User: Fold these one by one.
Assistant:
Number 1:
Amino acid sequence: MSVTQLIREAEASHTTRFAFELLPPLKGAGMEELTTNIDRLMPYDPAYITVTYHREVLKERQRADGTIERHVVRRRPGTVGIASAIRQRYGVEVVPHLICGGHSRADIEDALIDMDFLGLHNVLALRGDAFTGEPTFRPHPEGYSHAVDLVRQIAAMNRGEFVDGEVDEGHHTNFSIAVAGYPEMHGDALSAESDLQFLKEKVDAGAEYIITQLFFDNAKFFDFVARCRAIGITVPIIPGLKPLATARQLTILPEIFHCHIPDALRREVEQHATDKRAVRQIGTEWAIAQSRELKDAGVPVLHYYSMGKADNIIRIAEALF
């Protein structure tokens, strides 16, 4: 079943479903910790699980002669394989991320063909991050600069069209396409208005639902939805939430995700900054309060960014689902 259909069923029944995101294990690690976390979250009946994709990074090592050896590595490989293993083991729909960064159009096509063969028919189409040390995103010479072009390629494959111009009149893929939305504006956007226009282009190109970047102020989400509807974006918009877990995240999260930390949350965390358990509890309670308000507003799914940790997500799920 497509995630789009699951969302529509939740809307029709006026219910709110639970969903969460996972990181692939670091290279060399097994699936044990990952499946342990999933096992603990399955009782809350997730509508779907997303699996992040991490592009290559530059690794440096000093040789004995003092010179620097540089090579490119993938620290968290295996997104498609892990997504397939989760789907087979748990019977839940899985949404692997697919990014532009580091990939040619042919690479993307090959990944989509693998996903189709494995029964993974949901995908989250993203531009991805800049390469290590580069100030701005630089696409593969035969790839894409923007997620909208990735959406167009996936939609074309659904029509049986391939990057080499061939058209398959037999088997067609049937990917349900999600894209990212930014309630507080993408870090590279020139303005909130232009950011929304780029989002509309992705929807017009074939995106069926939107999962937002994390936010801590529901007013920003509600305003974002209103602005989307005003320019003709009618697809479901799923709020993405992350419980704040450490005092350091007061600085790190705004820097990385360009999100605002509300003054009330910041003050409370700062007052207990030396007590890690208290900070984690404050962040969890804030996310529960956010979630309750969003449920009352009728959102069909609440999507949680676990960052590889299940404990605080479990406490939220216990309170809400």
Number 2:
Amino acid sequence: MKHTFYITLTLLIFTSCTKEVEIDIPGYAEELVIDGVIETNAPPFVMISKTKDIYAPTDIDAFLNGFVSGATVTVSDGTNTVVLDEWCSDNLPPGAGPIAAQMFGISESELANYHICAYLTLDPSMSGQVGKTYLLTVELDGNTYEASTAIVQPTYFDSVWWKPEPSTPNHGFSWVYLTDPPTKGDAYKWEVKRINIGMDGEPIDQNFKVPFSPVFNDQFFNGLAFEFAYENPFAFETETPEEYLGLYPLGDTVVIKFSKMDAQVYEYLEKKYLQIQTAGNPFSTPTNIPNNISGGALGVWAGFSPSYDTLICQP
């Protein structure tokens, strides 16, 4: 009887403490997304789209229908102001193919297969220059969105080399020696593409690709000289044996694009790639991606000053 009493009392305590919890999930509100870039010796390139509900279709038609036309987009360097033209991937002006392919993330030969629209200009007065700050203005449906970005002084590698791993003498990482300037806040982005000629007579990689964590700043090495290695991101796209993942095989020829950016662009990209890396992980900390665009839009207006090195994978 005594055991029965305690069990009954315990059940009464737990059942009397239960409470129905109601979670109010806010509804979906469509927002404008502006993604723009200007690099040294390259024209400005801006894509405008709308956010999608998490339950919206994710097929190619839904993706293509998300792009926004009819905006007035201008870029100013403080002296010249240029209105960008709206062009679509299946009707690009001469010379815009390589830029569009890199921005859209598809090969130049595939551009005509899609109707992806963006804003750009081939006016040489608006080609990116180191030391200049560029103001982006987007006018759409009575609203105005603005952002500014700077093309900062680039930083160059002291040297680059390929070194095989002890366990895989025919595969290795790409290594560089970098001297970081003494100014705080330098931030970098690493991209690569292989320019080996394939069986079709063309380079095997059409566009640059970023590795797992492509951006970093000098928080822990400001003003220091040091060496570091980066992985081969293309090795994860093919059926590469596990022991070779992230490594470049002997004989590859690789172009390294090492871009420098201002602090706001770094903050955006660092959080963006962190969110990509932790997507679907229930134990990760939620990440809010910042932006440098005023007026209520999402996205980023990014200035880059890239430097290039060619890595030949030979001992």
Number 3:
Amino acid sequence: MIQFLLQIRKGLVDLINSFESMLKILFLSKFDFQIKNVSQNNTKLLILANGPSVNNFLSSFTNFEHYDLLTVNFFPLSDSFKKIQPRFHCIAAPELWRTGVKQEYIDMSDQLFGKLASTVSWHMYLFIPFEARKYSRWQEPINQNESITVVYFNNTPIEGLKSLRHFLVDKGFGMPRPHNILIPALVISIQLRYKEIYLAGVDHSWLGEISVNENNEALVCQKHFYDIETAASKPMNYAGVRHRKLYEILHKFYLTFKAYFEIEDYAKSRNVKIFNSTENSFIDAFERKKIY
């Protein structure tokens, strides 16, 4: 009886979440699926995230020419960005384009987009949410580089019934809650119809890096391959305007790891294979496989 009641409860929750997702799409999403206009060079895609393990990967992997490459967030600040010349780059953090955020995020944004504009000399697609289109500051340097094609996508959170979720994601109306840049990167990769997607640098090893100081501030040391020696414990930002509480950090991580299982399920329904090639990665949703 208890199991039956739990199933009824889950069904009702899925129906409510489906209805809420439809409302979010109606008010937040744009009905312009731009990703369909993006071309491929190879049949396989390699997503390079920014985890500490990327340094070892970049020093040992040599077959980049057999894969289209997708980098994320602040990867362009590394020397490796120009060397590997990725076909795609994805940015999703709202503090990088919104106004009214702390000055440190404005400085980070200016540095990132300025570096993209001055570095990219090959044809590259820049994926960024539709919301960013309303803000001009980040666009000014990018518009000066004709090698960069901006492609907007909907990052509207979609939850609810599985069949409806898959249909809405496939149409580009949204995705599982994008609490980590890997989520939109993966969804976009599947929408691009790659049949094999490999992941490198997706360590996600933050759980052991959480602490709380004497001022009751929740801190996380988020190490990247480009700042391993200088990374320090600090508060996690919330849309660039305040710091997250510990329960908010844990909830963010919960939603992130949960989303990967939803993406794996969606990928299988589209006959797409996702392989995690990151040693000691905390992600438990994707098949482990070395990349050659």
Number 4:
Amino acid sequence: MNDWERLHAAVVHAPVCLVEVVATQGSAPRGAGAWMAVQAGQQIGTVGGGHLEWEAARLARDWLRQGLPGDARLHRLALGPSLGQCCGGAVEMRLSAVTTHNVGALQQRLQPARTPVALFGAGHVGHALVRVLQPLPFTVQWIDSRDDMFPAVAVPQVQCEHSVPVHDAVRDLPAQSLVLVMSFSHAEDLDIISACLRRQRERGDVPFIGLIGSATKWAVFQRRLVERGFAPEEIAHITCPIGIADVPGKEPQVIAISVAAQLLQLRGQQLSSH
């Protein structure tokens, strides 16, 4: 159960105070938009931990004990010796009441926009990567030519798609999808990569095409892509191998964490450019 599911369940049973970071000055643990929900006996989410969070929770519980009277409240907390923190900045927080009537609107406002990921391949690394991406701000379109490779139970934020031939799915991917190619077959990988490059040539809306593989595989693929009519500058749009460089280990879980970190870097670059 994620934080929003926990909040929806909690607000049915007892009053909840939302603590939201609305502005920061200088160094601060979290930026604007970070939130936590406070009840008498539990906290959901985080605004940065440490004594700052302890003080914010104390203010929220004081307000809960008063019955949440009045409108939302603003508090400015300096991150200095009085809070036992040495960040040197300041955080402005808003305390407001969460109800069954407004929790949906709060989720829509505070939940970060999700970046689309197209994952081709439901092998060991694909399964590990889907698990790692679960709590992160991505939606995953998970595609394979083998229909029996997906989990039997639906996975939140993941759409499983059986496609034969598998590269046909490239045509209908959401714009600005980050594409990861790791099918069970080098032939399929090549077809998928080729379809991605054709779409990039026609629409220019595939910002990242990542291919799992060794240096030898990539050398072979570059020759074959040239044979298929792609120019060197087009082929340079592909990243192979994928993942953060210098992360040791080839276990599926290690690769998945490395690739997820790379996706977070790419997402940050996309957001900062807008």
